[in-house]
Specification:
MetI-like, two-stranded antiparallel sheet, about 325 residues, MetI-like fold
Length: about 325
């Protein structure tokens, strides 16, 4: 009986609270909140409709057409998709892109994680932490131009050092074997600081008492990193991984400046091929088809990453 009375009391309190909330939402003091909310979100909503939704729907429509800019688009059904499956250059570019993504993700995530852990455990100097993010603030074109000079086979400072050590320079951006690893290295250097700062922010959310308990149990630094840090950082690492994969699939500026897809299509990533078809050969219909295929692949890859890494769950509880 006592339990029933207690539940009845809580239900009555809950009903009163809900009733008060309903009354407050319609009180004269909050009467204009809905209109103000629409005014505040209007710029973001207009930007979403103009710069995201309309281009997306327009791109989906153009992927089913033959569109050469100077003439109106002609609906061709699935012809562009049939052409896509038989396009050897497209599949070659997709393979080059996947190779670049693997190098960027593996080395980028590893270096960013190690840098963040070092910043978190060994230094509290904010200047040092701020310097780490400087490469991310540099334009991609500027970074690519600077590195192309440094990696030049004749006048580059990097090759001068290598030539003194080995006697022969390395064609970093001019050989089929070194082109994609060199571009991946530039991309990792540029994005490493940004990813490290995100992981560093995640490290600061881990309570120090967890590490103190680990030390009391006799765990060393490596064991605490494997058994405590990595599991507790899983949501942050999942987010950084998803962002890195999406950003790597969209690489364009570094390739356009350093190799322009060469030598012999060795660095012809998918974005470069789409750009060449759309803006070089004015085949916008087929370019939209390849963009739609890339969009679908990124959705599937992102969904699988989020599910496999359980990105929406946390072990901190």
């Amino acid at each position: 009986m006592a339990i029933t009375a207690s539940r009845g009391t809580r239900a009555a309190k809950s009903t009163r609270v809900k009733g008060q909330g309903a009354i407050n939402s319609h009180s004269p003091a909050h009467r204009g909140d809905g209109r103000l909310a629409w005014v505040l979100i209007a710029p973001a909503l207009v930007g979403f409709l103009v710069f995201f939704l309309y281009p997306t729907l327009r791109g989906i429509y153009l992927s089913f057409t033959d569109f050469k800019v100077l003439t109106p688009p002609t609906f061709t059904g699935f012809d562009n998709f049939v052409r896509l499956f038989g396009d050897q250059v497209f599949w070659s570019s997709l393979g080059v892109t996947v190779y670049f993504v693997l190098l960027s993700v593996v080395f980028g995530m590893t270096i960013s994680l190690v840098t963040a852990v070092v910043l978190h455990r060994l230094t509290s100097n904010t200047v040092v932490r701020g310097i780490i993010i400087l490469p991310f603030l540099i334009s991609g074109v500027v970074a690519a131009t600077t590195w192309s000079w440094m990696l030049d086979s004749q006048l580059g400072v990097v090759n001068m050092l290598i030539e003194q050590l080995t006697g022969e320079p390395i064609m970093f951006l001019g050989s089929r074997a070194w082109a994609i690893p060199s571009i991946a290295m530039i991309s990792v250097w540029k994005s490493m600081g940004y990813n490290a700062i995100i992981i560093f922010a995640g490290l600061q959310t881990i309570p120090p008492t967890i590490y103190e308990a680990g030390r009391i149990d006799g765990a060393n630094e490596v064991q605490m990193f494997r058994r405590l840090t990595l599991p507790l950082l899983r949501p942050i690492l999942a987010m950084v991984l998803v962002l890195t994969v999406i950003g790597s699939f969209q690489v364009f500026d570094i390739v356009a400046v350093t190799t322009k897809g060469g030598p012999a299509n060795a660095s012809n990533v998918l974005q470069m091929y789409i750009y060449d078809k759309a803006f070089g050969q004015f085949d916008f219909g087929y370019g939209a088809t390849m963009s739609l295929a890339l969009f679908a692949m990124l959705i599937i890859i992102t969904f699988l990453q989020m599910r496999l890494m359980r990105a929406s769950e946390s072990d901190t509880n």
